[in-house]
Amino acid sequence: MAADILAIETSCDETAAAVIRDGRQILSSVIYSQIDLHTEYGGVVPEIASRKHIEKLNPVIRKALRDAGKTLGEVDAVAVTCGPGLVGPLLVGVAEAKAIAFAAGKPLIGVHHIEGHIAANYLEPGTLEPPYIGLIVSGGHTHLVIVEDYTSFRILGRTVDDAAGEVFDKVARAVGLGYPGGPKIDAAAKEGDPDAIDFPKAVVHGEEYSFSFSGLKSCVLNYLHHAEQTGETVRREDLAASFQKAVVDVLCSHMIRACREYGFRTAALAGGVASNSALRAEMEKRCGEEGISLHIPPKILCTDNAAMIGAAAYHSYLAGDFASLSLNAYPRMALGERPPRE
Ligand code: KG4
Ligand code: ZN
């Protein structure tokens, strides 16, 4: 019997709902992006995001059900991102999911946002199955993990300071490209020379799987200040391409090293930064050379969406791992952590 899960995602600035069958098939996926609202502030304003989620979530859910050809009574469970993320935006989704689950008499599933990003790789046409090495690079997280099973993870390394997406956003702001930084740097870098400026590697000495991006960010800022003081002109495209290369290099080399050391021939990328074109191309090239089968979700499933939440929720559904109506928002949930049952 097929299991159709209605999934809700509101952890940051995308209001999203989807209906997912058996953790793999997208019956519908609706994303209302608030990016334009936050652009003038140079980043996500949590209060504005929460208010917009309240306004948009019902229409987004109704559209997801309509697109899937389902009524609420016909879905088998309601899943929602309960953490980590911005507390106000998370609360909107959690309250909505609890209300729907209670009213329709459906089981409720609390989903970890990062597990959602990983699960985007299981959606069709994805054929990925654990175990494998996973690299999750988003606006709030940079994790290199062994995905032992659908719901169990061993963390090999993470960032000790800024997340990969965060540093894209900060550098973009410093060079005047604006918000959201990742896609803007990605586009500018296409016109630039990645070897124009030699930025340092974003590594942590003595911790082979950790990442540190704040030193790289400071180098970019110092480079800009120095150029300003000496009256040198900096080609924004060259700076974007050189910075991007430094980030891509460390992400690829850590991933390949982990595959070699732990003997994996399968790897997967996930998270908003996985939509970066240079990262996708370089990772594909380097994994190809190593004989590693690389999985990357389509770009629209790399950034925040609810389809990935429905894909992750399926494994809790199979295990009967349901949340009670006391489910809360958990802004700082560790990877692998489950929401309390009561
Ligand atoms: O996964 P995501 O949508 O939200 C979080 O869970 O954080 O990731 C958003 C992050 C932002 O920092 C954004 O700048 C970055 O992903 N991003 C990119 C690209 N598209 C989005 N970074 C680099 N290149 C891109 N094309
Ligand atoms: Zn995300």
Tag the structure with descriptive keywords:
binds 5'-O-[(R)-(carboxyoxy)(hydroxy)phosphoryl]adenosine; 342 residues; binds zinc ion; 12 strands; 11 helices; five-stranded mixed sheet; alpha/beta
Q: Per the principal axes of the C-alpha atoms, what is the gross shape? A: globular
Number of strands: 12
Order of helices and strands: EEEHHEHEHEEEHHEEHHEHEHH
Ligands in the model, by name, code or SMILES, are: 5'-O-[(R)-(carboxyoxy)(hydroxy)phosphoryl]adenosine, zinc ion
Q: Bin the helical content.
A: 40-55%
Sheet bearing the most strands, described? 5 strands, mixed
Estimate what percentage of residues fall within beta strands: 15-25%
Mean pLDDT: 95
Distance from N terminus to C terminus (CA atoms, Å) equals 29 Å
Main-sheet strand order equals 3-2-1-4-5
Low-confidence stretches: none
The structural class is alpha/beta
Radius of gyration: 20 Å
Q: Helix count?
A: 11
Give a short summary of the structure.
The protein is α/β, with parallel strands linked by helices and 342 residues long.
